[in-house]
Amino acid sequence: MALEELFQDVGVPTHMHTDGAKALTTGQWRKVCQSYGPVKQMVSEPLNPWQKRAKAEIRELKKQVLRIMSHKGIPRRFWDYVAEYVSEIQSRTAHPLYNLK
Predict the structure, then answer these.
(1) Is pLDDT larger for residue 9 or for residue 99?
(2) Quick check: 99 pLDDT over 80?
(3) Is 26 exposed, middle or buried (0-12, 13-18, 19+ CB in 10 A)?
(4) CB-based contacts of 85: which residues, under 8 Å, 6+ apart?
(5) So where are the chain's domains?
(6) In angstroms, rounded to a whole number, what is the distance separating the alpha carbons of residues 76 and 68?
(7) How far apart are CA 76 and CA 61, in angstroms?
(8) What is the largest CA-CA distance in the chain?
(9) What DSSP line would sit under 11-53, residue for residue?
(10) Is 91 exposed, middle or buried (0-12, 13-18, 19+ CB in 10 A)?
């Protein structure tokens, strides 16, 4: 499971904040968190306006990553490098939300 690999490669966090999806609060996920932890799991409140904004930004990031990879012929195994590249560009680009000129 990817979560176990993360814990082994990076370390076990003391807290994890998820969106409350069943896959992230029950079953195998929960067993892994308990066996490595206990890892305190916090769930965000449903239908929070900030979550909607974050999900929209993540969706846009994924679109841009796939677009760049397809256009440049980058193998899928390098998706994380492309995601970091796109994130760095977005973080340095003015956004209408902040009224920057």
Answers:
(1) 9
(2) no
(3) exposed
(4) 68
(5) 2-43, 49-98
(6) 11
(7) 15
(8) 50
(9) ---SEEEE---GGGTSHHHHHHHHHH-PPEEEEPPTT-HHHHH
(10) exposed
What pLDDT, in 10s, does the model give residues 32-54?
A: 888 887 888 888 877 777 777 88
Residue with tokens 């560009």: 89
Residue type, 72: K
Angle among Cα 51, 67, 52 to the nearest 5 degrees reads 10
Q: Which two tokens stand for residue 89?
A: 């560009």
User: In terms of Cα–Cα distance, which of 57, 64, 61, 54 is closest to 19?
Assistant: 54
